[in-house]
């Protein structure tokens, strides 16, 4: 049921976090998008993308019941009071292999742990698809909540990250995987 014959109501807000402002967008089915560096220009591009993908015009509604729990859990995660997100997720922005990989990541890679791109490929029955897993991480519409920051290179490198390597380092430090940055 991923076709959108009619437009989906999308509500959004921006939350300040330890890695900068995050845009949170939700539909009646759940959290649909998390966007890093939600300054005006980035926010406007993200909202235009949501409008074209889901139809309708996203509306800023920080008081929406659809956003109350995502906002609470994101804030608690960044203050160290929460390790796991327990939110309904709307997966309509992603499908196929990418959705399969992200669902495995969300359910199978707990707080404070990391997994290699190749290992994650094996977990979804696609050994040798490490590059495709990297592409799935890059297209993750729900970063932080679906923790693509926990996917790293097998040689110990931290790999890429849509929010930038500094944000990835900070998230991994928050979870105790990396030492806290010295600044």
UniProtKB/TrEMBL annotation:
PROSITE patterns: MGMT. InterPro entries: MethylDNA_cys_MeTrfase_AS, MethylDNA_cys_MeTrfase_DNA-bd, MethylDNA_cys_MeTrfase_DNAb, MethylG_MeTrfase_N, MGMT, MGMT_N_sf, WH-like_DNA-bd_sf. This enzyme catalyzes only one turnover and therefore is not strictly catalytic. According to one definition, an enzyme is a biocatalyst that acts repeatedly and over many reaction cycles. It comes from Streptomyces kebangsaanensis. It is an enzyme of class 2 (transferase). The active site is at residue 148. Its EC number is 2.1.1.63. One of its GO terms (molecular function) is methylated-DNA-[protein]-cysteine S-methyltransferase activity. Involved in the cellular defense against the biological effects of O6-methylguanine (O6-MeG) and O4-methylthymine (O4-MeT) in DNA. Repairs the methylated nucleobase in DNA by stoichiometrically transferring the methyl group to a cysteine residue in the enzyme. This is a suicide reaction: the enzyme is irreversibly inactivated. The keyword Secreted does not apply. This is Methylated-DNA--protein-cysteine methyltransferase. It comes from the Bacteria.
């Amino acid at each position: 049921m991923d076709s959108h014959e009619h437009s989906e109501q999308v509500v959004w807000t921006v939350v300040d976090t330890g890695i900068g402002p995050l845009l949170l967008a939700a539909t009646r089915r759940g959290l649909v998008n998390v966007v890093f560096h939600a300054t005006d220009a980035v926010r406007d591009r993200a909202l235009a993308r949501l409008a074209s993908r889901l139809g309708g015009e996203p509306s800023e509604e920080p008081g929406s019941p659809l956003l109350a729990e995502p906002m609470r859990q994101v804030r608690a995660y960044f203050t160290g009071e929460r390790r796991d997100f327990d939110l309904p997720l709307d997966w309509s922005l992603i499908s196929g292999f990418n959705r399969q990989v992200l669902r495995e990541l969300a359910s199978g890679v707990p707080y404070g742990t990391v997994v290699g791109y190749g290992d994650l490929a094996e977990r979804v029955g696609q050994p040798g698809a490490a590059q495709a897993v990297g592409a799935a991480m890059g297209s993750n519409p729900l970063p932080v909540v679906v923790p693509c920051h926990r996917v790293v290179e097998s040689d110990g490198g931290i790999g890429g990250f849509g929010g930038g390597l500094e944000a990835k380092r900070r998230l991994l430090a928050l979870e105790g995987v990396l030492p806290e940055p010295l600044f």
